[in-house]
Each structure stands twice: as structure tokens, then as C-alpha cells.
Amino acid sequence: MLSYAFRRLLSTIPVLWIAVTACFFVLRLAPGGPFDGERSLPPAILQNLAAHYNLDKPLIQQYLYYVGDLLRGDLGPSFSSEDFNVAQQIMIGLPYTFTLGMTAFALAIIIGVAVGCLGALYQNKMPDYVLGAMILVGVVFPNFLIAPILQLVFGIQLAWLPVGGWGDGSLKYLVLPVVVMALPHAGRISRITRGSMIEVMNQNFIRTAKAKGIGPRLTVMRHALKPAMMPVVSYLGPAASYLLTGSLVVESIFGLPGIGRYFINAALNRDYGMVLGTVIFYMVLIVFLNLIVDIAYAWLDPKVRNR
Amino acid sequence: MKKRLRSLRKMGFSMYHFSKKFLATAMFGALLACSAHAATINIHNGGDPQSLDPQKLSGDWENRIAGDIFEGLVTEDAKVKPIPGQAESWTVSDDGRVYTFKLRDGIKWSDGQPVTAGDFVFAFQRLMDPKAAADYAYLQYTIKNAEKINKGEIADANQLGVKAIDDKTLEITLENPTPYFLDSLTHYTAYPLPKHLVEAKGADWVKIGTIVTNGPYKPVEWVPGSHVTTAKNDQYYGTADLKIDGAKFFVLEDQEAALKRYRAGEFDILTDFPTDQYAWMQKNLPGQAHVAPFSGLYYYVINSQTEPTKDKRVRQALSMAINREVIGPQILGTGELPAYSWVPPGTANYDEPAYVSWKDEPYKQKVEEAKKLLTEAGFGPDKPLTLQLKYNTNDNHKRIAVAIAAMWKPLGVNVELVNAETKVHYDQLQRGDVQVGRAGWLADYNDPDNFLNLLVTGVPMNYGRWSNAEYDKLIKDGNLEKDMKKRAEMFKQAEKIALDDSAALPIYYYVSKNVVSPKISGFEDNVKDIHRTRWLSIKE
Fold first, then answer.
1. Which of A4, A171, A223, B486 gets the highest tally of CB atoms within 10 A of its CB?
2. Which residues constitute the signal peptide according to the record (chain A) (predicted)?
3. ipTM tops the 0.90 cut
4. pLDDT grade for B37, boundaries at 50, 70 and 90
């Protein structure tokens, strides 16, 4: 298992290199540069800035500099922050993003699986319809619509929760952003769980379990849940990587620190170092999470384990 | 805080021993007094600062923080009039080129070290150092040899026209007499730096915990993406007069969300608001939304080098057919004033700007004349004029572009709207890849030169590549003119030339948009939209 994991990680290095290289050059092809803006800078100033960031060197040399720094573990400077380099910015934002992402992830699983199971057990009955319709709201409405509505209702009308900000990081500040982040995933997880559960409940071994006289609760918990989770787990990998890389919308509506905004803002600002830094970070994270999903598969399904 | 209060109260009630009860009550009282005393203000500041180093900034959100924690020789009062800052007085030589500043007694950095003339020399030399690559260094090019040093033409930084005569006396020599020089000293590029610290710590001097400042406040916390917190600087000479103990500058780009947080009491001041909410705010938050003239111009660049806008008649027709009166009140909804001049009215060192000659004609007549001009230029029903109008992606720019395209339609002009993200848009403008394009200018310093310079031949921001030798000469000579009246006249003459030739299409003068809680007093609307915390106070 360990050598398998190690090989998987090793195989990502060439992929990472190709992605960094492609990203590096494609970025430079994009029109506009990091110092273009409402206020054009005089040529002398632009030259000073270009020299400061080595942008006046031939592109291939810039690339070699970058890869050299990267091999030393240095992600380089960010044009949009003088006081924190790319790695520092990511490290500062990470705890916030992970706290939000993990909480949302857990919430999405709990709600999604519970609603999905109930839907399957009460297939085409009242609870199935009601819960299904409720959860669909989370899937159908985009987060940039849900978030302001929740702010208005719970932050202003009822004044139960803060409208935004991280505050002291206590639960009340997390509730709204976490719910907004978790809802769409909870919806999808519940649909997958429901479908898979219905299928599993019709399998022979469940019929056997029922025939043995095991009660419905035990049948579900002990026999049906684990196999029914297989498709859910394969969805959780991408969902986790989505949630753990943060959300631009949630961060900018709730005014939260985090890394979600970096990628898009950096691309718009032609902050070359930051774009590359986030690409590398995302790739490593996604590879790692996929690995975990594969391991979880093996644990859930003996067939995979013995293969 | 709330939790602690409640438990204390419980303590007070449950204790039967009088002295203990008394003690608890006293503690409770002290706590209350304490909370009333800690007057902090929560400001919605928009973006995250690029740095706390005043020489690495370029945005107004950065200025809000920098101007609270640093102070230059000259500073702004609540109405942004330049007033003595770190300098208590100054004299100007007869030729207007040499300024001698006398520093205040006892001014200190927040670590207790004295602020000396040497700190100013150090800061200005660093600003001009090409290796430091300060974005905004050019703002102080008025200082002798500054431009040459910044361009690398002079290697010796001591050639810069900033000299410390002694610890308390600073002499600044300019290239030319510059009427807005004192005003430009209030800018963050003119703040002193703690030489002792920058030399000892290098680039790390700005880190929280290390940084020392000389302004009314000092930064104590920075959570990137969330907020910067400041606290009173006890070493500041005016610290006894400060009514606010500290500020929190919040990062939040979503203006709708910011307004909601304001309504929930999480913010005391919003530094911008969504224009479409203005009417709602006037009704529901009366007196809290501040809209005031702001020294800035929203305009359309028009290419005067390429067909068809190379023809002056085409440019003028397009300019005349823009119904500026409806843009502020109806399209934006915040009442921006229509612009018929290049320099916004109210700019210092200038009286009334020159206006376009057709300013006061009724709109119908303007359209008729515009039609005539286009016909003369050879355009008509059989040869319609087709134009590309470019703007950077933004709801308001889009609304205005759509409206203006509709205003040009009756002239038989077909407009193709093209939008791009900001970087791409400005890259196109700079390369001259534009027929008509949206641009804006916010004044760096309060002087007509700041606007007029945008139309001088060869200036990078002259996107329309308009060029007029007489105009260039008037601006150049005007800047050398010592007599302020004559200078203003020359500038006005130049402005008239540009307007008569429709060098660009001014559309409206910017307004500043703030929302200020009724708890705050001392907030004065002003043309620079700068509101230093030291002038504010807050009722709990």
C-alpha cells in the first residue's frame, strides 16, 4: 500500500512540471501585464519594476529562474503583495480555508447521507419528496444568490448571526459561509446516496439479511450503508478538493480570509507567481485527495483490495 | 465581552457578603467604563493593502491605512487642506524653488526614537532609488534631480534636492517652482521612513511587530484577506486629542455584502456603495449616504490618429450627442455631475475651467449640429459611421456604454460594444488599439496640471494620441510660470484648445460615495475623499 502511494505521488512530478511549464508560458501570452491599470506608469517606472521582478530578462531565462527557485521550494514573489510572498500568502490563508472547507465537507456528508438514506428507505413517499425538494434548492440556486439571502434573513432580519467576517473564528461566524458551501454538495451527495441505496436494498444479500429477521435499522447500518457508499466516496474526492481550495464567492461575500480568491484574482491581475503557486498547490492537493479516495475504496470494498 | 459581563453580574447577585458584592459591582462598573472608553471604528476598506510600506502603495484603500499610521511634513485636515504635520513651519525662497522645513520638537517614532530630517532624506532617496522600484516615485519628480536618479541617469543619491541641514531642518529644492508642491507632500510618497529600522531589518521592517510609524496610529494586526487593525500611537505629538483609539480596516470587495454588514452594525463607515442602492438608502438610512464632488473625471478616449475619428468633426459630433445630463441622475442614480470641461471645477490653483462652447445649448440643438457635422465629414445614410466602443468589464461602464451607443444611434452611428477585463482593456488603450474607449482619472494632487498633462504629446496616458504643439507649449510654459494668475490663464487657454478640438470626450465628474453611521462625527466630505481617523469621533 505504502509503495503504491509513493509511486502515485512520484508519478505526479512530471505532470506537475508539464502543468507549470504550460501555465508559465500561456500566462505570458495573455494580453496585458501585471502593471497595466487605470493609471499607466511612466516608462522609467515600468522599467524599474520589470528589473525588480526580473521581467526584463528573456522569457526562457525567467522560466529557468522560476524552475530553479521552485526546486529550492521557493514559489517566488507576488505582484499584488509586497509584504508576503506567494508561499506565505498561501500558508496564511490555508488554516481559514481548511477550517471552512473541512466543516462544510463534514456537514455536506452528514446531511447528504442522512437525507439520501431516508429518501431511499421512504422511496416515493412523503419524506422522500419533501427532503428531496428541500435539498434540491441547495443544488439549483447558486451560492452567490443563497449567500446574500441568508445574510439578509439571519444577519439583518433575525440578527441571530454575524453578516460576515471571521471575527474571533467562533462558530457563529462560520455558520452561514459553511452552510452556503455545504449545500450544493449535500444535495449531490444525497442524490447519489439515494440512488445507490435503493440499488443496494434490492440486492440478494439484503434480502438474505431481512430473511434472517434483522430489523430494518440494523440492515441499513450494518449491511447496506457500506456498499451504498462506494459511489459517494468517488464523489467525495473531487468535492473535498473543491471545498478545500476555498471559494472566491463565499470569501468575497462574507469577507473571509482564505486562498479561494487568490487563483482568480491573480489571473485577472496577471500576478504570474501567484497563479503558478496556486496551480501547484491545487494540483498537489487534488492528487493527494484522489489518493485518499483510492485508499478509502480499498477499505470499503474487499474486491478492490484483493485486486 | 458579553459573556464575561454576565458572569460577573451573576457573581454580584449570588454573593451575600457586602464587601464582596461591592467589589463585584465596582469591577462591573470598571468593566463598563473600560468598554465605553475603548472607542474603535470599523471601516469597510475594500481591498487588501499591497504593503504597509508607504512607498509600495498605489490605491486609495492603502492610503486610508498609510495616512493613519504615517505623517509627512505636511498633512491634511478634515477638509484635506494642507496643514503642518511633522514640520511645524516652513519658508519658501523668492524663486519658489527652495523650501526649508522646521520639524516639530519632540516628534518620535512609535518606538520612541526621534523623527529627524535624516529620516526624510533617507525616505526620499529610497523612493527615487531605481532598485526600490516604487510605482509612484514619479509623483515627486518635481524635486531636483529626482527623475534623473529614478531613471538611473544619476547614480549618486546625494544629488537629490532633499538635504538635512541639521536634525530639525530639512531643505527641499525643486526643479521648477511648483504651486502644488505642499499638497503633494501630503501624499504617502512623501512620508518619512524610520531609517534606523529599515537599515537594521531590510525588507522585514514592515512586518507587524517590527514596524514603527510616526502617525497618530500604529498597525498592530494584519490578517491578509480580512483586516488591518491599528491602535493609538502614544508617541504621536497629537495623541492626547485623538478621540478614537484605533481602527479596523476590513477587506471586502463585495459592496452589497458591505452594505448588509453596515446595516447589521458591523461597519461604521463604508467607503463605497452600490449605486443602485442609493435611492433605497436615502429613504431608509436618511443622511447616512454621503455623495460629494470628487476630483476625478470619467471620460472616453477617442483616437485622433486613425480614421474615422481622426476627423475633428466626427469627434465633436460624438461628443455633442452625448446627453450628459441623464447619465448621473438616471443611468448611475448617484447624481454625478455632467462634465463639459477637462479639469473638474473646484480644482485648486485654477478658477472656472474652460468649457466646451456648446455646453449650454439645448440637447436637441446639439444633436442637430452633430448630425450636420457628420454629414460634412461625409457620413450619412448611405455611408453610416461604424465605431468600436471599448470598456473594461463593469456593470456601470456597461450601462453608460449602452446608453451612449443609443444616443449616437440617431446620428446614424453603429456602435459595436467591446468589453475586456481591466488589464486587457488598458493594455489596448496603451497600444493605441482603440477607436473610442472608456477611461477615468482621479487626481493625484490638487492642480489642473494633473489633468491637463493627460493630453500632452507622448505621455503614456494620452491614449487617444491627440497631439497639438500649441497645447504642449502652453502646458510646458505654464509649469515654469511663477505668476499663479498667468499660469492659470495659460492652462485655461490650453484646456480650451483641447476642448475645441474634442481631444477626448469628458462625460462626468466623479463623486465620492461613503456611508457614515450617525454614531460618527467629524466626517467632512471633500474633493480628495480622504478622511483621516484622527479627525473623527464616535458615540458608543
1. A223
2. none
3. no
4. low
